[in-house]
Hints:
The chain is mainly β. Helices cover 0% and strands 56% of the residues. The relative contact order is 0.09.
Amino acid sequence: MTRVLILWSCFCWFSITAMGQPLTTLINYRGALVVFEKGAFRQIDHLTPVAIYEGGNSLAYVAHDNSLQLYYNQKTYAINDSPPDSIFNGDYLLSYLSYKQLKVFDTRKVKTISGWVSKFWPTDSLVAFEDNYTGKLMVYQNLRQTILEESIFAGAIKNLQVAVNIIAYTNSSNQLTIFYHDSIYRLDFVYGDNIYAAGQNTLAYVKSGERSFELFYKGATYQLEALEPRTFKAGRDLVAYVTTAGEFKAFCNGSIFKLSSYEPAKFEVKDSVIYFSDAQNYFHVFMGGQTYTLENFVPDIIKASFSTVAYLDQQGRLKVFSNGLSKIVSYEQIKKFEVTRNLVKYHTGLNDVSFYYLGNKIP
């Protein structure tokens, strides 16, 4: 039975899995690959790699000899003789395709989960794939494989989406199907391309027939709105949407919040953050159940990850917003910056790299 959520005014507590300071990399002035992890720097290769793939607790990179190397728990391993055809390093799971073989790094070892795969959908804790040997749609998670669909003939699977810990797609009967926490949920019949959006623990979708706006959240379904929204996007325990009447709302960890009576000029959802601009060109951030107005202009470059937002102000200074506080991190001219898993890495010179993590500047 579909449940109806009402508008709450209470504070919405948000949560990000406590992972500690995530690892990241830099190339020093000698061209060596250096890992920054748990507040310490460690050189792991004296030559510059061909490609780098940072994950939550591991680092994969293609070395100068084209081998695929894995750095994990302060040790480096050679895991493939050649570069991967495709690779994704998530918070907890590394998955890659090499000569049609789908491999994962899980619980400290590399394993081949299928010998013939042409298409796969990786995310932080699971990977969905079409097994060409069996003709089935499969998923790998928590050391086990599950059959999602018995047949993957042309057109059988449409609009497959993955997000952290969830898989969503429509099958040959146009039935919306979800894989979540080792269970398969068959929901409503849906038609069209842009009618659902997946996020951590979350899937927002438009129900066929009555065109109501529905939400799958942690194993249960709810009705967010009686009418189809103009647009919507999903994140980590988070959905942002514009109602038929033009109101801007957010679902956050079980509660609905009204962010504005008017449709924003632009909005984005990234992990646990919604950032948006209004008709007066003000820049706002919604995080943890509260809306913060950060600037009276919209920054040209905005980057966000987990619960951290970084951008350059009109003077070119690097500003970071996290934990409800905005701070100028650097007054120097910024060459480039990036945000990954709450860690801000920014360059002020050719080899001058600094870090900022949840209120702390390093070094």
